[in-house]
Specification:
heterotrimer, A alpha+beta, B mainly alpha, C mainly alpha, A: alpha+beta, B: mainly alpha, globular
């Protein structure tokens, strides 16, 4: 999968060149390696961003699977594009009306076999595409029994609050996890005269373990969007949207609200820094002070997220 | 073109001409008024688009502030969709459909006039929103935002849209009754020209989708002004409900905008290829199928809400590619082996096929749900909608204007200016919208007034802005073209393109009663049959038996 | 496809011409009214969808704080209103039978009766609103239930007003003797519309007052 996102992507970028023509030539390949010091807030891309025009620098397991769909569909699209544009150009050249064309051409009204063929073949192609994309979709939408990290994300006009929750303390009655007390707020990083480069907070997350995001909105609809995750999910008042991802590479990943939400929608950023397990645990320990809760200790022991169901039940009962 | 009548008739004074236009119930005059109104809003909406593109040309907020920007993109969409494309296709259909049916007028001429004047009332309400705080909600009016925005402009927009909705419902009823009841003798449903067929399907879509959005708009109005709780989660309401209502209308709306364009292309290609439309019945079936499928895919605009059953809507969205593909192949087969003449209407039609294809292909990507998760609400979607509506609807509208202008005004527009305009528009459209694919794939979301200078998006945005200005520039030769052509004396050429359908069988411009006599109608090309007896489906039997099975 | 001779061809053409010239089927104005009613059905479908959406998604419906409006409590207004509207549909049907037999006086009497029933419905409708607003403190801003109740019944009531106006027009034209056995399209249109308004009420009654 990674190969198709990397080498395949580069190959396909070449394939795009004739289609995009002068546009790509004009824009070229843009290095994009200044993630945080921009006056507007974080850039949306990791430090290794290397191109435009194709999915690139996707860092989650789910995102890589999704981005892998791009190339096959792109190739089908290019084939259809070349077929139809080619036919148009050919006909414009071959069948252009000439002086000798005084009579009428052959009056062909239709051909039922052809109609059936060009109904059936596209139907077949889209069915295959549907099956392929739905199989990936099922993987992307899958959630694990017990995620290693649970983050409640609250969207509001115009910022975000990331609340780290206790993955072992789920209360099925209220459908909520217990809070750990670690909260990372993001509010619009407004560059102003007093503060030309506002400090940008970062939400720290571990790599290689399933992370569950639970999205809620305090006012209007927002959308949680991290391009490097190849994913977005709407943040809707009165509704909890959940999804899980596994980040595969450490790095800094910018995110932004993707659903128009009012005046400063364009400045509703957040930043996620993915780090190795040990570093994450150290950060959690530092954030939650000297006395980490039992659940965090458990998570520390079992970084792969395979907490015992029994332990979870106990904590739930305590919480209830 | 509003002055076309002044040149057309022998009116005594200017005042009586004005009065004539204000009180007319003639479908042709109403059609022209629709077209002129729509084109005016095309230019206003275009100026708004230039505002957006100018702000986005380079990073930073140079020209306008966030509050102004947030009004621009919503109003741009509302004007282009509700005040340009819809009235434009309604106006063309108003003028052409009764002529193609061999009817003297629409079924309900006075309701027809009412529809037009309601359009003006709605347009005035929507434009006046600018003076009352604007409507910074986007054209999608997503709740709770549109309920919470404190601006009278939003209420005016809601009222204006409801008025437009009822104008279109009355229009749709009028078209349906006209098509079902006013066809000339011999004009069976399967002998109607494709433009009339697409108008019929469009009218059905309007009839069933507009009341739904009208109800939804009224719900927002109640929530805003009377303390209603339809969309307020705290009161037990549901924000997702609005999205269902909106897109249940919104997706058929896309076909309402594009089906008449398909109809126009299906009229022009046969005429300029001198061949019949390939697979007429397949076309009719495909049109009906697109209309029906249009009601099954609304939630593909809601893939990222986490509140819809994804595979169902994904599947039907993919499925729409099939009838659309049938249309493409039939268009190509219509041209195949023909004697193609590249006058401006044909140029625009071929341009339509070439570029609408891109809008179709990048739309197929969006049916792939995991990919949609990435590019939903990004410039990929912006690019898709503009390839569909600019390269699609706008190209087809210009094709139609060049094609039917001689019928409406009695003289042809300049071919030279038309071709200059086409190439500017062709290049501009691609420059403006192709780079947006890459921006969207790179994560540039839509409806933001600004972006980071470090994102690597500056060049692509700048190219896009240049393209937008080229599109705007392409309107100038057209205006000049109309202006100089209307100053010329009338040629009264009744059939300048060697047309197929009944509108070419009468004078240009047609008399108030449309036509003195009609050809015998035996196929979808009655006028062609009369001009070329023995070739098509005229009274003499066809000589090639193999063509009979597919076409009879 | 053997219809190739001129004579047969002309015959086919004349048949087609005859078919269209007879203009069989529905009168254009009636067809227009039917299409308008079809669009109205979609309008109410959206409102009903909002109702059922709330009913399906909320844990309790009506939500806490709102009281289910019981049709079987004094003064039984919804039931009386239902009886009135159903009766008015019958009198409207009676009017149709009368004019189809050419009985103009019968038509006028039946339309007048329908008009009175329609007005009676409107009075009770207003009375119910007053009762709910004053005695139960239940308004359009009383949460989703109040919003749905007033929007659904309000738009239905507005349609009854439209129907009553139509009945008034029909009655005045009937009294002027403008309808005959063969020519009474305007009456037929109002007749369809009135039945539609009645059907919407029955659905409303079932949904709002009966379906808990």
């Amino acid at each position: 999968m990674q190969a198709s996102g990397g080498r395949g992507g580069r190959l396909a970028r070449l394939a795009l060149l004739p289609a995009a023509g002068l546009l790509l030539a004009a824009c070229g390949v843009q290095p994009n390696n200044n993630p945080t010091s921009d006056s507007l807030g974080p850039s949306l891309f990791g430090e290794t961003a290397n191109g435009i025009g194709f999915p690139h620098d996707v860092v989650t397991t789910e995102g890589i699977a999704s981005a892998g769909l791009y190339l096959p569909i792109f190739l089908i699209a290019v084939a259809i594009f070349i077929l139809i544009e080619g036919l148009l150009l050919f006909m414009a050249w071959r069948f252009r009306r000439r002086d000798k064309d005084t009579g009428l051409p052959s009056q062909v009204h239709g051909h039922n076999k052809l109609e059936i063929i060009w109904t059936a073949i596209p139907a077949l192609v889209v069915t295959v595409l549907f099956i392929g994309s739905t199989m990936v979709l099922i993987d992307v939408e899958a959630t694990s029994e017990d995620p290693a990290v649970v983050v409640d994300v609250e969207g509001f006009q115009f910022g975000w609050t990331f609340k780290y929750m206790d993955p072992a303390a789920y209360d099925p009655v209220t459908d909520k996890y217990a809070e750990t007390g670690i909260v990372i707020p993001f509010s619009p990083a407004l560059p102003s005269a007093e503060d030309p480069a506002p400090v940008v907070q970062e939400a720290i997350l571990p790599v290689d373990v399933p992370i569950r995001f639970r999205l809620n909105s305090l006012d209007v609809i927002h959308s949680f969007y991290v391009p490097a995750f190849f994913f977005k999910r709407d943040v809707i008042p009165g509704r909890t949207n959940e999804f899980e991802i596994t980040i595969e590479q450490p790095g800094v990943y910018g995110g932004q609200c993707a659903e128009f939400c009012g005046l400063s929608h364009g400045r509703m950023f957040f930043t996620i820094r993915a780090v190795e397990q040990a570093e994450y645990e150290a950060w959690v320990a530092e954030k939650s002070g000297a006395a980490p809760t039992t659940a965090e200790a458990e998570t520390g022991e079992a970084p792969e997220g395979d907490t015992e169901p029994g332990a979870e039940d106990e904590t739930s009962e305590e919480a209830a | 073109m509003g002055t076309a009548g002044a040149h057309a008739g022998t009116y005594v004074s200017r005042r009586s001409t004005l009065l004539e236009w204000l009180t007319t119930t003639d479908h042709k005059k109403i059609g022209v008024m629709y077209v002129v109104t729509a084109f005016t809003f095309f230019m206003i909406g275009g100026v708004l688009a230039l505002g957006i593109r100018t702000e986005l040309a380079v990073p930073g907020l140079q020209m306008i502030d966030e509050a102004t920007y947030n009004q621009l993109f919503g109003m741009h969409a509302v004007m282009m969709i509700f005040l340009f494309v819809m009235p434009m296709t309604t106006g063309l259909a108003n003028y052409i459909v009764p002529l193609q049916l061999g009817a003297a007028d629409m079924s309900f001429p006075r309701i027809n006039a009412l529809s037009f004047w309601m359009l003006l009332v709605g347009a005035i309400l929507i434009v006046s929103a600018f003076a009352f705080g604007g409507a910074p909600t986007g054209w999608t009016l997503y709740v709770p935002l549109s309920v919470r925005v404190q601006a009278t402009g939003v209420d005016l927009l809601l009222l204006g849209l409801v008025v437009l909705g009822f104008s279109s419902i009355f229009g749709a009823i009028n078209f349906l009754v006209t098509i079902f009841k006013m066809r000339a003798p011999g004009m069976g449903l399967l002998r109607m020209p494709m433009f009339t067929w697409t108008t019929l399907v469009t009218a059905v879509l309007l009839l069933f989708s507009l009341p739904v959005i009208a109800a939804g708009l009224i719900m927002i109005f109640i929530d805003r002004n009377y303390g209603g709780g339809f969309f307020d989660p705290a009161a037990g309401g549901s924000p997702i409900l609005w999205q269902h209502i909106f897109w249940f209308f919104g997706h058929p709306e896309v076909y309402i905008l594009i089906l008449p364009a398909f109809g126009v292309i299906s009229e022009i290609l046969p005429v300029f290829s001198r061949k019949p439309l390939f697979g007429y019945k397949a076309f009719v079936i495909a049109t009906a199928a697109i209309g029906a499928l249009g009601f099954t895919v609304w939630a593909h605009h809601m893939f990222t809400t986490g509140a819809v059953f994804l595979p169902f809507f994904s599947f039907f969205t993919f499925l729409i590619a099939v009838p659309t593909g049938v249309k493409f192949f039939n268009w190509l087969a219509t041209m195949w082996g023909g004697h193609l003449r590249f006058d401006t209407p044909m140029l625009y039609s071929v341009g339509f096929i070439a570029l609408f294809l891109i809008g179709g292909l990048d739309g197929a990507f969006l049916a792939v749900v995991p990919f949609d998760f990435m590019v939903q609400d990004t410039y990929w979607v912006v690019s898709h909608i503009h390839y569909v509506l600019v390269a699609g609807a706008v190209f087809a509208i210009f094709a139609a204007l060049f094609y039917w202008f001689p019928k409406m005004a009695g003289r042809r527009l300049s071919e030279r200016l038309g071709k200059v305009q086409f190439w500017i528009l062709f290049v501009g459209t691609n420059l403006a919208f192709f780079p947006q694919h890459m921006l969207g794939l790179d994560g540039m979301i839509r409806r933001i007034p600004d972006y980071s200078g470090n994102a690597g998006w500056t060049e692509l945005n700048f190219i896009s802005t240049i393209g937008a200005f080229l599109i705007a520039a392409s309107v100038l030769p057209f205006l000049w073209n109309v202006f100089v052509t209307l100053r010329k004396p009338m040629e009264h050429e009744s059939d300048p393109w060697d047309g197929n359908s009944l509108e070419w069988a009468t004078t240009s411009p047609p008399a108030p009663w449309n036509c003195e006599s009609l050809p015998v109608i035996r196929s979808e090309r009655p006028w062609f049959d009369q001009k070329y007896p023995g070739v098509g489906h005229g009274p003499t039997p066809p000589t090639r038996p193999e063509t009979e099975g597919a076409s009879s | 496809m053997t219809v190739n001779t001129e004579a047969l061809d002309r015959q086919v053409h004349e048949e087609e011409l005859g078919h269209d010239a007879r203009r069989g089927g529905m009168d254009p104005a009636l067809l227009g009214m039917m299409l308008f009613i079809a669009s109205e059905v979609m309008f109410f479908a959206a409102l009903f969808a909002a109702y059922f959406n709330a009913k399906a998604t909320l844990p309790v419906f009506p939500p806490e704080g709102a009281e289910f409006i019981d049709a079987f409590k004094f003064p039984f207004l919804p039931i009386i209103m239902t009886v009135i509207l159903l009766t008015s549909s019958l009198t409207m049907q009676l009017a149709t039978m009368r004019i189809r037999r050419g009985d103009r006086t019968g038509l006028n009497r039946a339309v007048a009766l329908t008009l009175i029933l329609g007005l009676a419905f409107l009075v009770l409708w207003a009375w119910e609103y007053v009762l709910l607003l004053t005695e139960h403190d239940f308004g359009i801003d009383s949460g989703i239930y109040g919003t749905l109740f007033y929007t659904l019944t309000g738009f239905h009531g507005a349609h009854v007003i439209g129907g009553v106006i139509g009945l008034g027009v029909i009655l005045s034209r009937g009294l002027a003797g403008q309808f005959t056995k063969r020519h009474h399209v305007a009456f037929e249109a109002v007749h369809y519309y009135w039945h539609f308004v009645d059907v919407v009420w029955v659905l409303l009654f079932l949904t709002i007052y009966l379906l808990k």
